[in-house]
Write a structure and sequence with these properties.
About 30% of the residues lie in helices and about 40% in strands. With about 120 residues, the protein is an alpha+beta fold. Strands 1-2-3-4-5 form a five-stranded mixed sheet.
Length: about 120
């Protein structure tokens, strides 16, 4: 299976898991010049910006380990753009990661924050 197929299946599995956990998916594949956010969801009044990491195995470590500082900074910048576009600059936010492996989906709430990323 190629990486794009694994990625699409991973995002579908992540959305399903988020919905089962009570989150409302607002948008998928938000692309702006600053970067991309896989999923934007809300839980109560909190907006969750979710990076999905799907892997076919643990050969290269836990999927969340691939969300380094540079990727986090792109997500944070893109989140700020999305919030401004939607008039939600004052909304509480968090940055989650969903790891998808064959047979498992793990949601890491507040996996990172924006501290020091600007």
């Amino acid at each position: 299976m190629n990486r794009r197929v694994v990625g699409n299946l991973g995002e579908d599995a992540a959305c399903a898991a988020l919905r089962r956990a009570g989150l409302n998916v607002l948008a998928r594949n938000v692309r702006r010049p600053t970067g991309e956010i896989d999923i934007v969801a809300c839980e109560g009044k909190t907006i969750a910006f979710v990076e999905v990491k799907a892997r076919s195995s643990l050969r290269y470590g836990q999927p969340a380990e691939a969300v380094g500082r540079a990727k986090q900074a792109k997500i944070v910048r893109t989140a700020a753009v999305w919030l401004a576009e939607n008039g939600l600059e004052d909304a509480p936010v968090r940055f989650d990661v969903v790891e998808v492996l064959p047979g498992s989906v793990r949601h890491l709430r507040a996996a990172f924050d924006a501290t020091g990323l600007f």
